[in-house]
Structure formats: C-alpha cells, structure tokens
Design brief:
Largest sheet: 2 strands, antiparallel
Number of helices: 11
Strand content: under 5%
Distance between the termini: 51 Å
Order of helices and strands: HHHHEHHHHHHHE
Number of strands: 2
Strand order of the largest sheet: 1-2
Length: 266
C-alpha cells in the first residue's frame, strides 16, 4: 500500500493557516486568539501523544492494553460531557451519568461491529477496536452532551409550567414530554446533518484517510458506511440514555422536580 509520508516541516507549514483564524479574530475583535492558541497546542500535543501510544499498543497486541486504553478514552469523554453542561448535577452523578452511558453504548456498538461485521483476528486487535470505539464515543459524546444541556436549561427556564403540570397529577415523563423530545432532537441533529452531507457535500474523515493511504475507494466507502451506521445508532442510544437518565435525576419517585440537585457551572 503506497502513501506519501508527511514531514514535520509539512505539518508546521499547514499550521500556518491557523494564523488566518487568529487574524480574523483580531481584526473583528472576537477575542478568540488566546483560546485558539491554547486549543491548537492542545490538539497537536494530544494527537502526537496518541500516535505514539497507539504505535506502542499496536506492537503489544494485548487485550489488556486495548481494553485499558478504551476505558481511558471513555473516562475522558465522560469528563468532556460534564465540562459542556451549563447546569451540572451535584456529586458523583455529575460525572457518572455521561460516562456510564458512553461506556454502555460505546462498548455495545463496538463489540457489535467487531464480532458480527469486521471479525478481525484476534478480536481485540487495537488496529480495529480502538478506531471504531473512538469514532463512536466521539460522536455519541456530542449527542449526549447536547441532549442533557438542552434538557436542563429548558427545565430551568420552564420550571413554573412543569411544576403546574406535575401538581395536576401528570407523571414526570408526560409533564416533561415536550422538553424530552426537543432535547433528543437536538442531540441527534449533528449526526443527521452529517449523514445528509456525506458523499455530496463532504467526504468523511475516515474515508478520506483510507483513500489517501491507498485503499480502493469502494472499500473505503463500505467502511465509512458501516461507521456512519454505528455512529447513528450509538448517538440515538446514547442521547436517549442520557436524557432519560437526566429526567430521573431531576425528579424523584413522587414525580416532583428536584432542581436542588443541579448547580450552575461557575
């Protein structure tokens, strides 16, 4: 398989394009220069680090290394969900809901792909397991975060309306029905938009990478379709789990709102 190696000078040259973002921010007074610089450095360090880590793990081909890195990826993604919430749950629930939902959905979808679709030998081959898991939890994380954020902010905004409906005897899932539907639609919208644009407006990252690496375009398309189906299913399951779990945590068994369980992010 032939592909063209990139030098560090090539990467440095490409990074100069970030200056355009900084220039626009400075000219228009957006104040994003510092955030842009920090995130550029953060992204570069993270990607370079994971490149060396993956190279090491590929050489080990051990289920312990593969599953260990997978758990770290899920744990960090759970932390990322928490950081995106305007209103956060207090205590361990603040982190537990997002991370546990990601863990269940990420591993279910990945094992489905590994054992029924790709079927690599061995099944824990990091070359297949980790990229598939990464793409699923990366997109599911966005869906869960958006769904939970939409639910908590809308409940805080409509607290009087919701409490009136609960006082009239409506169960929590009926009183919050409109908010739940809106939260789930918001969480699933990014993947729906990505599916609509794929192939016509944009070539997804995985497919592009495979084609550049020399893989036949038809075979690259097959893998991309499989990934998109997995991401769509994972996002739907993850958003549902996150929003439903949040409803339980925002109410109690007597169907009362318990907004003292959340706090506004500082």
């Amino acid at each position: 398989m032939d592909y063209i190696n990139l030098s560090f000078f090539d990467l440095a040259l490409a990074s100069s394009l970030i200056l355009i973002n900084g220039g626009i921010s400075f000219a228009l007074g957006l104040g994003l220069e510092r955030t842009l610089l920090i995130n550029t450095v953060r992204m570069t360090v993270q990607l370079m680090a994971i490149g060396f880590v993956l190279k090491f793990i590929f050489m080990q081909t051990s289920p312990f290394w593969t599953i260990g890195l997978a758990l770290i990826m899920v744990a960090l993604a759970g932390r990322e969900i928490l950081s995106r919430q305007t209103y956060q749950l207090k205590g361990l629930n603040a982190y537990g809901l997002g991370a546990s939902t990601l863990f269940c959905v990420g591993f279910i979808c990945t094992l489905f792909a590994i054992f029924l679709l790709v079927q690599p030998e061995p099944w824990y081959s990091p070359r297949y397991f980790l990229p598939i898991l990464g793409m699923i939890i990366g997109n599911t994380m966005t869906g869960i975060g958006l769904g939970m954020e939409t639910l908590t902010t809308s409940v805080k905004r409509d607290i009087k309306l919701i409490e009136d409906r609960l006082a009239l005897g409506e169960p929590r899932f009926i009183a919050l029905g409109g908010h739940i539907k809106n939260s789930m639609k918001t969480g699933m919208m990014p993947i729906i938009n990505a599916m609509a644009a794929s192939g016509i407006i944009s070539l997804p990252g995985m497919m592009t990478g495979q084609i550049i690496s020399g893989v036949d375009p038809i075979e690259a398309t097959k893998y991309q379709l499989m990934i998109m189906f997995l991401i769509a299913g994972g996002t739907a399951l993850g958003t549902t789990g996150g929003v439903v779990g949040m409803v339980y945590l925002l109410t109690d068994d007597r169907h009362r709102l318990r907004l003292e369980r959340i706090k506004q992010k500082k």
